[in-house]
Prior knowledge:
By secondary structure, the chain is of the alpha+beta class. The protein is built from 2 helices and 8 strands, in the order H-E-E-E-E-E-H-E-E-E. The longest helix is centred in the first third of the chain and has 42 residues, at 2-43. The radius of gyration is 25 Å and the shape is globular.
Amino acid sequence: MKRTTSIARRHKTAVSAALACVAVLGTVATATGAQAATASEQGSGVVRTNNTPYVMNHIGEEHADKGKAERSPERLVLSEFTSAGNLDWKKWGTKKAVATGEITGMWCLDTCQDKPLKGTLTLSDPKTVNGKKVFSSFTLKLAGGKGSYDDVEDLQGKRHLATI
């Protein structure tokens, strides 16, 4: 009888120790994951605070009129003629946001509808609109230069970005 109690007690102690180890490992893994995510975001320049601006995205029928306030969207309507997709945000700060991605527009439908152009998008000039800080301008630079799209308005300097 004494031996059975001793074995049961050892099993109970072993199970308790194992559960304690699992709890410690879970805590360490959670903390490590949070640190990695924070370091990854900070290393990429995508650090957000309450003061970090949004961009008004007019993508999709439901947001065509008023837009949707977003940060680091994967796709973004830049103007009535140009949009960007597969955006990889390198920076999203209080003064500007920078991403690389695929650019399409009404001005290149014959060539870029099936094979979007590569480019760099910069959002800038934050303004407060309806109580939210939003970027109000964009510049777009195609990889390899403009070439045959030299006269496209959205590719000439800084352009107005819809803020309502």
